[in-house]
Design brief:
Number of domains of chain B: 1
CATH topology of chain B: Rossmann fold
Structural class of chain A: alpha+beta
CATH architecture of the largest domain in chain A: 2-Layer Sandwich
Number of domains of chain A: 4
Number of helices of chain A: 18
Number of strands of chain A: 20
CATH topology of the largest domain in chain A: Sulfite Reductase Hemoprotein, domain 1
Strand content of chain B: 15-25%
Largest sheet of chain A: 5 strands, antiparallel
Largest interface: A-B, 40 and 34 residues
Helix content of chain B: 10-25%
Strand order of the largest sheet of chain A: 1-2-5-4-13
Number of strands of chain B: 8
Distance between the termini of chain A: 60 Å
CATH architecture of chain B: 3-Layer(aba) Sandwich
CATH superfamily of the largest domain in chain A: Sulfite Reductase Hemoprotein, domain 1
Radius of gyration of chain A: 23 Å
Helix content of chain A: 25-40%
Oligomer: heterodimer
Chain lengths: ~550, ~160
């Protein structure tokens, strides 16, 4: 993990002091709400329906056990004892007092965490694959580049007042788990013909009101050119992005309006002016960043013995077998695995975790995964370095703590925003819909049999739960003060990203579980052996689903 | 005489702002030490360029490229903010300083706020005509942030080349 030096500490502590002073001026009436608003947003603080909400960055999802314990303590001391893991891998406090926030930020700074630019019209937390550094299908570890981007974007003086928020994701794996194609900038690490490392740069992806897949503006950007090129993209956007209508202010609208070729040309022209300046990265700097993301002290074991021992345990214990199938994934080192702790048991808001559970996660990370964990954009937690011979012990402990629901990647592993229960932007509640679906499909064998399905629920078209890229996406809409739900099918956020299409007229909340059931019935009827929901949908199209769902009852 | 923050100190403002009226060709530019809108500069350029007591100010709407050639001969350029959340002025300042080689006083005008002083100064602004602020208190905000990761107008080397 990245470790702060004196400079990082200085930069963060001056920021904390600045926000403390701004908050004091605001509370004393010397800084008007209108001026304070963007300042507090850029320090992570929203004012929500019921209380302020503080969004803390988890840079590219990496968090240490020490940091987790600090979050747990802060949620006890300043909040109601639980936090929420967001779809941007961040952690939200739901009920802090405004006056306490400077102190919370000061406490976070002690463990090298911050809320800088976690909201507002600026460059947000850079995200990546939750299996970064250990994924078997990875070209190389994206995290050093994420950290380099984090530093470049943090308090960037020129780009703090952009037309709209700006999100960057980095993918380095064959299967894109970072949803990089639906980001303002999606960077894909790859190698050119000469074997040099660089990035394929996509710009203008995004969800929200106008969902779009990013366009490639540069096929190969040499790694050392990363920051100057980002500066060029941001400068073109900062100068030309629309500011007259916040719904048309994202960079995707600019790229679309200019046309991707004209946009790319302008970025290229800007970049040529600056590419050989001081912002050009050095091999030393890339090397320095890489030194923080070295492999832990993996043990070498007899792989065959490990596997046969695991097979025996699987046969003896069906529940363990299911958990291994769904919640445990491959690792680049033989004998090790990645374990996803499910934060999606039925009856709990997806992504919510209590302070006691946080303590448990910290303990599990210490005992089983070299003291580190990752938050995922699916709102779960990953322990990324678990030895195979530790899996059974970990499973038993995870089960006792409520983290072992074997539903990762299934229908009930729902991605869901806080919705109308908490969020002041929402048009409709989303959490009760997730709950209804989880309760309807409580038969784990049935859920299992369905295989991989992404189900995403957003409470409004801002699409925090990325409903456009759910295989099944549900969007809350408001019609004359009443809440309705639109269903979309066929979205996907992987390497073959696609945006879902609307099934038809929207439904009442009560009808949603039956609608989902009908959709699944068609899937089961139409699927060919081994097909996932997405495969079947892509093969048979929307018609049979539409027919079934909207058929008149006889 | 109104006061501004300039080069880190509170000083009396020597410059008079000329407002844009309907016809920039007939805007009165007779006074000494004036800052004129870009449109006036463009309309009366031949006369104004011979004077050394004329500066130009632009707004977020204007294309800073319009001053690409002339800026090196100007003592003062102003960038006027109409909404402090509109960040175009930051890029305009960057371009004036880093691309067009402007060395004179770069002044922030309009509705920016003291909490932006650090970022503004990092982008190359050296003077700040703050509205409705106690300048003595506001000046402190210039030193809110003293270390940065990025390259900028007053520190060309990003932190990774210095650490």
């Amino acid at each position: 993990m990245y470790i702060y030096d004196q400079y990082d500490h200085q930069i963060l502590s001056q920021r904390v002091a600045q926000f403390r002073q701004q908050t004091e001026r605001h509370l004393a009436g010397d800084l008007a709400e209108e001026a304070f608003l963007p300042l507090r947003l850029q320090n992570g603080l929203y004012v929500q329906r019921l209380a302020p909400m503080l969004r803390v960055n988890v840079p590219y999802g990496m968090i240490s056990s020490k940091q987790i314990r600090s979050i747990a303590r802060l949620s006890r001391d300043y909040d109601k004892g639980y936090v929420h893991i967001t779809t941007r891998q961040n952690i939200q406090f739901n009920w802090p007092d405004l006056a306490d926030v400077p102190e919370i930020l000061a406490e976070l700074a002690k463990v090298e965490m911050h809320a800088t630019q976690s909201s507002g019209n600026c460059i947000r937390n850079t995200t990546t694959d939750q299996f970064a550094g250990v994924a078997p299908d990875e070209l190389l570890d994206p995290r050093p580049y994420c950290e380099i981007i984090r530093q470049w974007s943090t308090l960037h003086p020129e780009f703090a007042f952009l037309p709209r928020k700006f999100k960057i994701a980095v993918n380095a794996a064959h299967e894109d788990r970072a949803a990089s194609q639906v980001h303002d900038i999606g960077l894909e690490l790859h190698q050119n013909d000469k074997g040099d490392i660089g990035f394929r740069v996509r710009v203008g992806g995004g969800l929200g009101r106008t969902p779009l897949i990013g366009s490639v503006v540069r096929e190969f950007l040499p790694e050392l050119e990363l920051l100057s090129y980002l500066d060029a993209v941001l400068r073109v956007y900062n100068q030309n992005g629309r500011r007259d209508n916040k719904y048309k202010a994202r960079i995707k609208i600019l790229v679309k309006a200019m046309g991707v070729d004209a946009f790319a040309e302008q970025v290229e022209a800007e970049w040529l002016q600056i590419k050989d300046g001081y912002t050009k990265l050095t091999s030393d700097e890339v090397g320095r960043a890489k030194e923080f993301f070295t492999s832990p002290a993996y043990e070498t074991n007899d792989i065959d013995a490990l596997n046969s021992e695991l097979d025996t345990l699987r046969r003896q214990n069906t529940a363990f077998d299911k958990w291994l199938t769904r919640n445990v994934t491959g690792h680049k080192i033989e004998g090790y695995t990645c374990v996803t702790l499910s934060l999606k048991p039925t009856g709990v808001a997806p992504g919510d975790v209590t302070e006691r559970q946080l303590e448990t996660i910290a303990d599990l990370a210490d005992e089983f995964s070299f003291g580190e964990a990752r938050t995922t954009h699916e709102q779960n937690v990953v322990l990324s370095d678990v030895a195979k011979n530790q899996l059974f012990a970990l499973w038993e402990k995870a089960k006792a703590a409520g983290f072992a629901t074997p539903n990762i990647g299934t229908l009930t592993d729902i991605i869901c925003c806080p919705g109308g229960d908490f969020c002041s932007l929402a048009n409709a509640k989303s959490l009760p819909i997730a709950d209804k679906i989880q309760r309807r499909f409580s038969d784990m064998d049935f859920v299992y049999d369905l295989g991989d399905i992404d189900l995403n629920i957003s409470g409004c078209m801002n699409a925090c739960a990325h409903h456009h890229v759910g295989n099944i996406g549900i969007l809350g809409v408001d019609k004359k003060g009443e809440e309705f739900y639109q269903v979309q099918l066929g979205g996907n956020s992987g390497s073959d990203t696609s945006l879902g299409k609307v099934l038809g007229p929207s439904f009442n909340a009560e009808d949603i579980p039956s609608v989902i059931e009908k959709i699944l019935d068609i899937f089961i009827e139409k699927r060919i052996e081994g097909e996932s929901f997405l495969h079947t949908y892509r093969r048979v199209g929307m018609a049979p689903f539409k027919e079934q769902v909207y058929a008149k009852d006889h | 005489m109104p006061k501004i923050i300039k080069d880190g100190a509170i000083v009396e403002d020597q410059w008079q702002i000329i407002n844009l009226n309907d016809d920039p060709t007939t805007t009165d530019t007779g006074a000494k030490n004036i800052l004129v809108p870009l449109a006036v500069w463009q309309a009366q350029r031949e006369a104004l360029i011979t004077r050394d007591d004329v500066g130009v100010y632009i707004t977020e709407q204007d294309d800073v490229e319009a001053l690409k050639e002339d800026c090196v001969n100007l003592a003062v350029i102003g960038i006027e903010f109409h909404a402090f959340t509109d960040g175009r002025g930051f890029s305009a300042a960057y371009l004036l300083r880093e691309r067009f080689g402007f060395k004179g006083e770069l002044r922030a005008l309009g509705t920016f706020i003291r909490d932006q002083l650090c970022y503004l100064s990092r982008c190359g602004f050296t003077a700040f005509a703050l509205q409705d602020e106690n300048l003595e208190e506001a000046k402190a905000s210039l030193s809110d942030l003293q270390e940065y990761y990025q390259a900028s107008a007053n520190e060309p080397r990003p932190l990774f080349r210095r650490r």
